[in-house]
């Protein structure tokens, strides 16, 4: 990274200057210089303004916004698993759909870090041939981070605890960070699905919902990351519940430890890690609706990105890929249910209230809160399968 190279040069100058500084001047000089170098290490590398300006230039044919989509895990480390469904498989499904949507826009130069045949050839070559450079990069960044924490120039903050990444996974993630920096990637999107430790892993857990992780506010790429995260979060939250895991329930979570988004200040571009829900949730485990759910999660992410760059531009006939749909059977609340929303797979209090509001709006009596014949007929009238949303 350019700012680290500059810092290294200045440290060399500092070492030479110390040789000429008197003992009485050394302490004050040293303190001021450390402040200066720390300010370089944490200089803003991406902001709302830099991203907007790059998009405006792309619209004029002056380059393109570089986006890297990283479907979480791979064939070696497949991530979490529930009842035979592996995280690495569904992150790739979502990544491919998001790639399709973004690549259709001439403003963007989009790349998938891995496909069904393995890692992107350029990234794979970089990881294989640049091992010594990547390891030195990580060593240097960790040393600088530790130094500035010790000096009190940055505060160490652990908000949500994470499992330690296996060494091979950590190497790949740091390598992707370095590759992204050297290739000027503007936005990095890491795709994941969540889980948590519990005594019986074969049964669904008690937590649900999505969350968006971003670099902690002191990091160089924090500002650009947050503005995009807020836009994506707003889109996802319209149809999906945000996480109710303690400390993650703020929705957009700042983090210093996740390598993917720049642990030890290792990413220049805007970086987000999106946990799109818990792998055991009904809309992911139900094979009938999983494909549509994943398609819609990608679509909401795409709309969130476009909202940021185009200032809330509307896209398509419908604002969800879950429509159009043909309602053929009555839908009702079977009893006490978990937290629910339109797309959670559960029919609980939230859905019941939404159905009643729909019935009230269209004068459907009685307002039962379940979708019977009259309600289904109105839904099929409003969202007929003959009308297709425009991607």
UniProtKB/TrEMBL annotation:
Keywords, ordered alphabetically = Hydrolase
Q: Which Pfam families match?
A: Amidase_3, PG_binding_1
GO cellular component terms?
outer membrane-bounded periplasmic space
Question: Domain of life of the organism in this record?
Answer: Bacteria
Question: Mind telling me which InterPro entries this protein's record contains?
Answer: MurNAc-LAA_cat (IPR002508), N-acetylmuramoyl_amidase_3 (IPR050695), Peptidoglycan-bd-like (IPR002477), PGBD-like_sf (IPR036365), PGBDSf (IPR036366)
Q: Does the keyword RNA-binding apply?
A: no
Domain MurNAc-LAA: residue ranges:
67-305
Residues annotated as domain Peptidoglycan binding-like = 344-379
SUPFAM superfamilies membership:
PGBD-like, Zn-dependent exopeptidases
| GO MF entry, a single one | N-acetylmuramoyl-L-alanine amidase activity
Q: Does the keyword Hydrolase apply?
A: yes
**A single GO BP annotation from the record?**
peptidoglycan catabolic process
What is the name of the protein in this document? MurNAc-LAA domain-containing protein
Q: Write down the species.
A: Candidatus Adlerbacteria bacterium GW2011_GWC1_50_9
């Amino acid at each position: 990274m350019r700012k680290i190279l500059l810092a290294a040069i200045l440290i060399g100058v500092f070492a030479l200057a110390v040789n000429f500084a008197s003992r009485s001047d050394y302490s004050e000089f040293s303190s001021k210089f450390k402040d200066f170098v720390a300010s370089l290490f944490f200089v803003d590398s991406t902001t709302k303004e830099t991203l907007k300006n790059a998009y405006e230039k792309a619209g004029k044919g002056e380059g393109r916004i570089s986006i890297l989509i990283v479907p979480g895990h791979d064939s070696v480390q497949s991530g979490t698993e529930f009842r035979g469904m592996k995280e690495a498989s569904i992150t790739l499904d979502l990544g491919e759909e998001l790639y399709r949507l973004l690549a259709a826009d001439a403003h963007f130069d989009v790349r998938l870090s891995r496909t069904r045949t393995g890692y992107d050839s350029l990234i794979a070559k970089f990881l294989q041939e640049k091992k010594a450079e990547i390891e030195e990069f990580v060593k240097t960044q960790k040393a600088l981070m530790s130094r500035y924490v010790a000096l009190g120039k940055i505060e160490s903050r652990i908000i949500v605890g994470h499992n330690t990444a296996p060494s091979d996974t950590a190497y790949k993630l740091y390598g992707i960070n370095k590759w992204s920096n050297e290739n000027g990637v503007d936005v990095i999107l890491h795709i994941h699905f969540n889980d948590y430790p519990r005594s019986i892993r074969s049964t669904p857990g008690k937590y649900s919902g999505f969350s968006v992780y971003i670099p902690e506010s002191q990091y160089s790429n924090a500002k650009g990351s947050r503005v995009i995260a807020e836009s994506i979060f707003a889109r996802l939250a319209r149809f999906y519940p945000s996480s109710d895991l303690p400390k993650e329930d703020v929705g957009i979570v700042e983090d210093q430890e996740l390598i993917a988004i720049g642990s030890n200040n290792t990413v220049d571009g805007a970086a987000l890690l999106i946990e799109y829900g818990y792998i055991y949730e009904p809309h992911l485990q139900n094979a009938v609706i999983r494909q549509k759910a994943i398609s819609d999660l990608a679509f909401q992410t795409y709309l969130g990105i476009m909202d940021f760059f185009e200032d809330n531009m509307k896209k398509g006939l419908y604002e969800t890929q879950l429509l159009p749909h043909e309602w053929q059977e009555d839908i009702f609340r079977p009893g006490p249910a978990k937290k629910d929303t339109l797309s959670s797979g559960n029919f609980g209090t939230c859905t019941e209230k939404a159905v009643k509001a729909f019935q009230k709006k269209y004068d459907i009596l009685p307002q039962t809160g379940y979708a019977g014949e009259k309600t289904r007929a109105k839904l099929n009238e409003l969202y007929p399968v003959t009308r297709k949303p425009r991607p």
